[in-house]
Amino acid sequence: MNASIDSPTTAPALTPAFSICVYCGSRPGHSPEFAVMAAAVGTWIGQHQGQLVYGGGHNGLMGIMADAALAAGARVIGVIPKALVEKEWAHTGCTELHIVEDMHERKRIMAEHVDAFLALPGGIGTMEEFFEVWTWRQLGYHDKPVGLLNMDGFYDSLLTFLHSAVKSGFMSDWQMQLIRTDDKVESLLQALVQTSVPVSVPAPSAL
């Protein structure tokens, strides 16, 4: 099943300048700055005639970002499993809302229709999605840039762990170079949209 609900709320560009998949929390977080950041991401995408592809929810940072993107004129594509629609978590104001059977189909569709990936602050769902597209990049399944928005040091502990994994021999420096990290919304989005990751992936035998 891949149902689709089309409900345009603005007049987005017929051909977006770019399409970016953003992963983020379905909760707002304790600090109001998280909401400000999510809104800034959505606004930037709309102001630059882009398309936002995300998990299709209306809660937390997801909904804040989608609302801001729509208000700024972006085309917003939500992809959400049927089970979450039944819990009334879907954002019915998306330009397009695609209802799929499960999480695997959701992630596949989201990945196929974008030029870049970005993870904002979030929980284990956000982390799972971020690590999956990073792993796919490492394995050569795609060559799209992957970004991590480290607002106010939110991901400092994660990055410390990853560098520790490199130091301990479980990862390589080139794998870290496959992701872009920044604490500024605009500079990170510009880097993801305008460039690709300048790192060649070793042959499978070297992974």
Task: Give an account of the 3D structure.
The protein has 207 residues and is an alpha/beta fold. It has helices at 32-47, 60-71, 82-86, 103-112, 124-139, 156-167, 173-176, 185-194, and strands at 2-6, 19-23, 51-54, 75-81, 96-100, 116-119, 146-149, 179-182. Strands 1-5-4-3-2-6-7-8 form an eight-stranded mixed β-sheet, sandwiched between helices. Helix 1 (32-47) packs parallel to helix 2 (60-71). It is globular and about 45 Å long.
What's the SSE blueprint?
Elements: E1 2-6, E2 19-23, H1 32-47, E3 51-54, H2 60-71, E4 75-81, H3 82-86, E5 96-100, H4 103-112, E6 116-119, H5 124-139, E7 146-149, H6 156-167, H7 173-176, E8 179-182, H8 185-194
Parallel strand pairs: 2-3, 2-6, 3-4, 4-5, 6-7, 7-8
Antiparallel strand pairs: 1-5
How would you summarize this macromolecular structure in one to three sentences?
The protein is α/β, with parallel strands linked by helices. It has 8 helices and 8 strands, in the order ββαβαβαβαβαβααβα.
Top keywords for this entry?
Rossmann fold, about 210 residues, globular, alpha/beta, 8 helices, about 40% helix, about 20% strand, 8-stranded mixed sheet, 8 strands, disordered C terminus
Strand order of the largest sheet: 1-5-4-3-2-6-7-8
Task: Please write the CATH class name of the domain at 115-146 and 157-197.
Answer: Alpha Beta
**Helical residue percent?**
40-55%
Strand content: 15-25%
Supply the helix-strand structural class: alpha/beta
> If classified by CATH, what would the architecture of the domain at 115-146 and 157-197 be?
3-Layer(aba) Sandwich
Number of helices: 8
